[in-house]
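Page 42, continued from yesterday. The earlier attempt failed because a stray header line got pasted into the input along with the sequence. Redoing it now with the clean sequence only.
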Amino acid sequence: MIYYKTTAEVELMRESALLVSATLAEVARHLKPGMTTLEVDALAEKFILDHQATPSFKNYKGFPFTCCISVNDAVVHGFPNSTPLKDGDVVSVDVGVFKNGFHGDSAYTFAIGKVSDEVKQLMRVTKESLYLGIEKAVAGNRVGDISFAVQDYAERKYKYGVVRELVGHGLGKKLHEDPQVPNYGKRGSGAKLHDGLVIAIEPMINMGVKEVWYEDDGWTVKTKDGKPSAHYEHTVCIRRGKADVLSSFDDIEAAEKANPALDATYY
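This time it went through. Structure tokens are written below.
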């Protein structure tokens, strides 16, 4: 069942999505070598609660944390832990909030200290593939048009591995709604996009092979070949002519560039 949002509901969702963005910007201000991902998680949770919202992920199907924090070869759904971050780590932070009856969802990948040119390219291409997918998120197109745009850029042009097992999704009063939004597929296939549909588009792109495996915690997804992965996500409303991006990377990117412990030279 696909639920379309009214203009008023979209504005409530924008508030939730922008709070996610603000949370990720707060994370970007503090990330540094020596910090643990458990400390990042606690920082994000406090920020969300201080803004009269609830973390969407905490206790969702048993997930015990506010953030999914995935380091290096972890693709998504990583458990925060007590291992200190170090120079050269690639850290994806995925956050959701529930406010005013609706969820917002966004993710961003950070480079701690200095990373290789190969990793910088992976991050840049993953972020660019997100925006290429968003360009196709307009009324009259189909889900497959978004999927193809991401895959064509990341996989066909750059030979990266596009993860199959995990996909984007509809978003609203529930954290995961129909339709699923894969990062691979055929143009003109899948559900037709109509005005008022809100979806999370989230390319998960591996430097090496597309295959993944699950750690014993049942959540953390890792690349099969141990090479790094990147992940960026926006909450997007389908509109006629041009998608309305409800989340924002502006403050995240500003904080990233202002933090000397992060490498923002990849874009």
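Notes: The helical segments are 7-30, 37-50, 117-135, 143-157, 250-258.
Reminder to self: strip header lines before submitting.
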